[in-house]
Every structure is written in C-alpha cells, then in structure tokens.
UniProtKB/TrEMBL annotation:
SMART domains: Arg_tRNA_synt_N, DALR_1. This is Arginine--tRNA ligase. It comes from Phormidesmis priestleyi ULC007. Monomer. Residues 15-99 form the Arginyl tRNA synthetase N-terminal domain. Transmembrane segments: none annotated.
Length: 594
C-alpha cells in the first residue's frame, strides 16, 4: 500500500501499521526479516503515544545490534507519515506511534456512510463450526449450558460479521444410556405412549427422568430391561425409536423456550446423527494401528495422559459390551465436520471440566491423520457460575435453578428497577414500553454479565451487580446509547442528515481520545475472532462509553458553534452506532429510550 491512500483504507490501524513496519524491516535489514513480528500493540499509557513496537529489542540478538540502533535504522525506512506523527524512540529501544488528527478525522468521516464502521470483511473467509449450547435430552439444561449458549452465540455472531461462513451446531445429548431407563419407565407408566401420539403428557421431563433413575437404582430387573432397551434403540427397533422421538420432541420444546428468550439461532445435530458412523470410527482407528484391545474394550492409549501408576491412560472407543462412548461420537463428528461440512475451523464451547475430554479426542483424531494442516480445532472453555456464597448456584431451598426461572427473575427485577426509576422521575410510560424495556434490560444483563468476564474464570451470579446502572454492566452500556439518542431528540437532530460536507474536527484532548478509540473496533474484533475471548469486546465497549462520557462532560455539543457542533454530533452518532453494532455482536439489542 502506498502512502497516499491510507486514510481511505478501512484496514484496522494495527494491520496497517504492521504492513508498513514489515516493509521497513525488509528495507532496513534485508529479505531475511520478511515475516518477523513487528510486535505492535496499543500503548498502556497515552504518554507513549497510541501504539508501540518493541521489535527492536526482540531483534537485537538476531541482528547483533543494539536495540536503539535498530530502532533508528527502522525509523529511517518507515513510511507512516500519512498515518502518524514522526515515530519516536523511547527507553531501551521501543518505537512509539501517535496517530495524526487529520488521519483520524478522515477515517472517521468515512464511517458516516459505512454501516460496518470501518470493519472490513476478512479476505479469506473460513468455513467455521461453532458447537455450542448442546444440552442433554431429559436432563437439566443448567447454567453451564447457559454460558455455552451465550458465549457460543457471541462468537458465532462475531465470526459471521467478519465474513466467515459459520455453521452453528447444537450437539445435543440425545443418544445415551439415559434413554434405556426413560423408555423402560415409559413402558411401565404409559405403554400407550409407544403406539399413539400425545397419549402422555410428560410434563417436566426432568422430573420424569428422576423417577426413572430412581427405579433404575433400586431395581435390578428394571436395570436389565433398560440395558436391553439401549441395545434395541441402537439397532433401530421401531417402537423404541418412537418412544425416543417422543422424549426428544418434549425436550426440544423446552429448550426452544430458552432459545427464544435469548434470541438464539442454532441448528440441532445431536449425537444420534453420528450413530451410523461410529462403527467406521472403530474400523479406521484399527486400520491406522491405533486401536488396542484391553479387557475386552477397544481403546487408544493416550500420549501425555497417565494413571496413578504412570501407565498411559486409554481412551475407550468401544466398550466390551459393544456400546460406544461420548468420545466416539465426537471422533465421528470431527470427521464429518471436516469431510462433509468442509469446515476449516472447529470450535467447541463447553465448561473447563471437559478440557481433558477434548484434548484426548483431538489427540486421537490428529494421530489418526483426520485433521489436515489447514484445519484449526479449538476447545473454548469457561469456568463455573457460582451463587453469591461462592458455591454452586442454587435456589433458596437448595434445588438447581431452572434456566427459565433464572431468566424470568432477571426480567422481573429489571422491571422493578425501571418502575422505581419512573416513579422517582415522575414519568408515565405505557405498559408496552415497560414490558419491552424490562425484557431487553433483564436478558441483556444476564448475557453481558457472562460475556464481560474472562471466560476461563468462575463468576458469581448476582442480579444486583448485573442490573446496576453503574459499572461494566448491560444497563450502563444501554444507557450510554440512550444518552446519545437523547441528544438528538433534545436538539431535534437527524443524525442521518448532518449535511454532505459535514466534517470531523478534532481539537480537544477528549475528542482525540474518543476518536482513537472509535477507530479501534476492528482491532478489538480481530482479537476476539482470533482468541475467542468475548470479554475483550465488552471491555472495548465499556471504555468507549467512558471515553464518550468524558468527552461529553468537557465538550459542549448542542451549544457549540456550527462547524464544531456538527463535528461533535458526528462523534456522538459514531459512538452510538459503534455501541449498537458492538452490543448486537454480543447478542444484545439496544433501546432508544429507557
Ligand atoms: N452435551 C454435552 C454436555 O452437556 C456437551 C456437548 C458439547 N459438544 C461436543 N461436541 N461434545 O456436557
């Protein structure tokens, strides 16, 4: 890229600077340096400029020169005059970059007619599978599944926005031994259900499951029948399949209620889907010589996983009774996703408790040669949701919380907060307004509380914290958006019609700081697209609202003289649009008033 068109390019700032940096490295030190990492990051302190490279320090050994000397030579070759003020060398040999106000203003002005706010679609879209949510039929859909649902949906939204082709898959547990007991129990309590549709209202399937499990635990005869039922299911016996379908339908309806509440789009492709492919997993592992028979079971001995005696741990692929495991299904799924779906990136979103499972399955698939070099496979893991007592989240009476109740309570509390505020402010609003606002605030609060945490840590579920109007919360973010809309209402401004010659002018410190941040959306999304930590996007948006508030406190908008007023209105509008877009990628809808 040449120096004249930088302000028209919508490449992220970091990508743009990296590009120039790589050229300078080659110009200064030869082709050998092609591909060397420019080590460019946003600075932690504005007194070091906006971006910093510590490549000169990293390259000192390799080039046999002092870092500061390397920095000098680099700067001479570096052509960034259209983007930055002259780069400065600092400390032991850092290079600091400060963006030019004209560059910032030109880039941001172009966002005025750009719905993507400068975020370019990726040049090489990857077909990606996000395996998330994935609850188990007839078992509780618990807060772990809630986290997977929220995080997985957010990751899918971001990758889709970046231009990747994403397949969202719900790997529901619809094919386990639990069906043996369920169906045996069904035969006992309502045999008609096996032959006629709607003969039985299964009501709460989880309660039904508990009763079946109880029978299983206390009655050996029932156990025997259940095992037999699993075999019949796996061999496709018609009446058993009918019963199985009935159970799945019931669960599906219950899951859908949650997905509707959370605005989740996902395609069900449960474990049963891979049933016919399991035998060939065994055969093919056998062919590549990985399969070992151990006490009647067929297993692969793992590298790097040992039992207490230091012996390699086996991953059981087929049990001695011929049955298959959770891992076998995942092996079949990996092959299907790579070969049939042609996916180049496989993402699995589950709790950290499954880290070993995925590491083992990935290892076996890799050793079997099923994962080509150009395919990435990643377990996106997350920590536990805890109650305010730091223990597993429970109801007051000690039961597990139903997700439905948890979400309803968030909405009820959001409503109570809103009604109190309306009363305080003496405002009258329609029931429709209140219900809609409570719904959006309540659900957003739950999502945001989850996404804003570093996903690998445990987090404490607190309605009070997540619904607070202050702090890194959904209500705070939604309110920042509403605040800007308030400006346009108050000044009777149509943000879409600020005039074709409207220009951004950056004079005040807070304007510059805000402008720089507005330009970092693409870098923030790039980061999340790579390492799949949604909290980085939350942090970006939180800082954006803080920087906006600082700007708005210092710089009069509606009272400013004309050209400055237009420029500031543009900054307000860009902030609002960035918030709206960013929140939508978190799965959160904004309100125009609240
Ligand atoms: N059903 C599993 C559970 O509830 C999660 C499945 C995750 N996806 C996968 N491909 N294993 O723990």
């Amino acid at each position: 890229m040449n120096a004249t068109n930088a302000s028209q390019s919508s490449e992220g700032v970091i990508a743009q600077l990296k590009n120039r940096f790589e050229q300078a490295l080659i110009a200064a030190f030869g082709e050998d340096l092609a591909g060397a990492d420019p080590m460019l990051v946003p600075t932690s302190n504005p007194k070091f400029g906006d971006y910093q490279s510590n490549a000169p320090l990293a390259l000192a050994k390799r080039l046999g020169k002092a870092p500061r000397a390397i920095a000098e030579e680099l700067i001479q070759q570096l052509d960034v005059s259209d983007v930055c003020l002259p780069p400065a060398i600092a400390g032991a040999g850092f290079i600091n970059f400060t963006l030019k106000p004209e560059y910032l203003a030109a880039r941001l002005s172009a966002f005025q007619i750009d719905d993507r706010l400068g975020v370019e679609a990726v040049k090489k879209p990857k077909r990606t599978i996000v395996d998330f949510s994935s609850p188990n039929i007839a078992k509780e859909m618990h807060v772990g599944h809630l986290r997977s649902t929220i995080i997985g949906d957010c990751i899918a939204r971001i990758l889709e926005f970046q231009g990747h082709e994403v397949l969202r898959l719900n790997h529901v547990g619809d094919w386990g031994t639990q069906f043996g007991m369920l169906i045996t129990y069904l035969r006992e309590v309502c045999p008609e259900a096996l032959t006629t549709a709607d003969a039985l209202d299964l009501g709460d399937l989880v309660a039904f499951y508990k009763k079946a499990k109880q029978r299983f635990d206390e009655d050996p005869d029932f156990q025997e029948k259940s095992r037999h039922e699993v075999v019949r299911l796996q061999s496709g016996a018609e009446d058993t399949l009918r019963a199985w379908n009935l159970l799945c339908e019931q669960s599906r309806k219950e899951f859908q209620v949650i997905y509707n509440l959370l605005d989740i789009c996902i395609t069900e492709r449960g474990e049963s889907f891979y049933n016919s492919l399991l035998a060939s997993v065994v055969e093919d592992l056998e062919k590549v010589g990985l399969l070992v028979e151990d006490q009647g079971a067929k297993c692969v001995f793992l590298e790097g996983f040992q039992n207490r005696e230091g012996q390699p741990l086996p991953l059981i692929i087929q049990k001695s009774d011929g049955g298959y495991n959770y891992a076998t299904t995942d092996l079949a799924a990996i092959r299907y996703r790579i070969q049939q779906d042609q996916a180049k990136r496989l993402i699995y979103v589950t709790d950290a408790g499954q880290a070993n499972h995925f590491a083992q399955v990935f290892q076996v698939a890799r050793r079997a040669g099923w994962i080509p070099e150009d395919v990435d496979i990643e377990h996106v893991q997350f920590g536990l949701v805890q109650g305010e007592d730091g223990k597993k989240l429970k109801t007051r009476s000690g039961d597990t919380i139903r997700l439905r109740d948890l979400l309803d309570e968030a909405v009820d509390r959001a409503r109570a907060d809103l009604e109190a505020r309306l009363q305080e402010e003496g405002r009258q609003e329609t029931e429709e307004f209140i219900a809609n606002a409570a719904q959006i605030v309540g659900i957003s609060a739950v999502k945001y509380a989850d996404l804003s945490q570093n996903r690998t840590s445990n987090y404490i579920f607190s309605y009070d914290k997540m619904l607070a109007l202050q702090g890194n919360t959904a209500p705070y973010m939604l309110y920042a958006y509403v605040r800007v809309q308030g400006i346009s209402r108050k000044g009777e401004i149509d943000f879409q019609n600020l005039g074709s010659d409207a220009k951004i002018l950056l004079h005040e410190e807070t304007e510059l700081t805000l402008a720089k941040h507005l330009l970092q959306l693409e870098d923030a999304l790039d980061q999340v697209g790579q390492d799949l930590f949604p909290n980085r996007l939350c942090q970006y948006l939180f800082e954006l609202s803080q920087k906006f508030n600082q700007f708005y406190d210092r710089c009069p908008v509606l009272q400013a003289e004309d050209s400055i007023k237009t420029s500031r209105l543009m900054l307000c509008d860009l902030t609002a649009r960035t918030l709206k877009l960013g929140l939508s990628l978190l799965g959160i809808r904004v309100l125009e008033r609240m």
